[in-house]
Amino acid sequence: MSESRRALALSLLLGTSGTLHFLMPKPYDRLIPRELPGKARTWTYASGLGELGTALLITIPRTRRFGALLAALLFVAVFPGNVKMALDYHRKRRPLPHRVVAFLRLPLQWPLVAWALRVRDNAR
């Protein structure tokens, strides 16, 4: 896959996820740690805007390097929410397939960070 396509695929992933924050916010609300101030929905919408903005920055070659760095930071920033989801699913004895998927998502976050950093490093 060419570096340009790799960047556009990352942008598509972020853009799709960001859009889903607005179309189906409830699942994202449950990822928000209670310790954060304010309403979960506000954080859901803010993170959706962050993903959409980051996707746009990656799409534009001139801002791709900065956008990809933001994407890597975003993937790190949402990691606590993924941990919360996995622990909540375990505590609430959600169906086993749901728990397995929730825990498998955790190590998959790091390849996303690596992908974003690769896009950053190859941006002109």
Automatic annotation (TrEMBL):
Keywords in UniProt for this one?
A: Membrane, Transmembrane, Transmembrane helix
Q: What residues form the membrane-spanning segments?
A: 67-87
Q: Name the chain's protein.
A: Putative membrane protein
Give the originating organism.
Actinocrispum wychmicini
